[in-house]
Amino acid sequence: MRLTGQQIYLRPLELSDGNGSYPNWLNDPEVCRYNSHGESLYTSEMAHAYIASTIDNPTIKVFAICLNHNNQHVGNISLQQVSVKNQSAEFAILIGELSIYGRGIGYEAGQLLLEYAFTALNLHRIHCGTHIENSGMQHLALKLGMQKEGIRRDALFKNGRFADIVEYGILYNDYKKGLK
After folding, report:
1. Which of 58, 117, 125, 132 could tie 164 with a disulfide, CB 3.0–4.6 Å?
2. Dihedral of CA 70/76/79/80: which sign?
């Protein structure tokens, strides 16, 4: 399966991606500044094990974000904790290549993933949470049509201190309205 946009396409994450840049992203302090990664060494073996655990797993859909013009794998985007019963999933994104920050790649990838979630998977609700200081992700969530739903206080321990997580969500009907 391939979901194609103007600048990028999404394809399922493959075992071979564990041999590329992907494991290095999770060791980069700037890339991991606001997420739960980056506090211990992440190896290609760990990446391979993670990727293998996602293949044919109905509760997680992980895609590589690749540039159309050169096929470079620049990040990952996923639906996690996919619940058929609740028709919901958690949205997560990691742009690993700092050189493409600010080009709208995350927004385009997010649009493609939401379309897939709501139309192909028939989900009702998508949600995400981010570090209180991650203004980029907060902006992305709002731009994708998500609404701020609340704050989980001291929910993430990062760099020796607790931080709040800001929660966002979007329902299918809100997504549909935003397409008009």
Report:
1. 132
2. positive
The answer to whether 102 touches 1, Cβ cutoff 8 Å, is no
Residue 81's region, left for phi above 0, alpha for psi from -120 to 50, else beta, is left
Could you report the per-residue pLDDT of 43-66, keeping only the tens digit for each? 899 999 999 999 999 999 999 999
* Six token digits for residue 107: 């927004």
Using DSSP's 3-state secondary structure scheme, residue 110 falls into helix
Does residue 42 contact residue 64 with C-beta atoms inside 8 Å?
no
- pLDDT digits over 61-110, tens only? 999 999 999 999 999 999 999 999 999 999 999 999 989 999 999 999 99
Q: What is the CATH number of the domain that holds 10?
A: 3.40.630.30
- Express as a percent the part of the chain with pLDDT over 70: 98
- Expressed as residue numbers, the domain containing 94 is 3-178
- Cα 174 from Cα 133, distance rounded (Å): 26
- Counting the structural domains of the chain, the total is 1
Helix then strand count (H, E) for the chain reads 5, 8
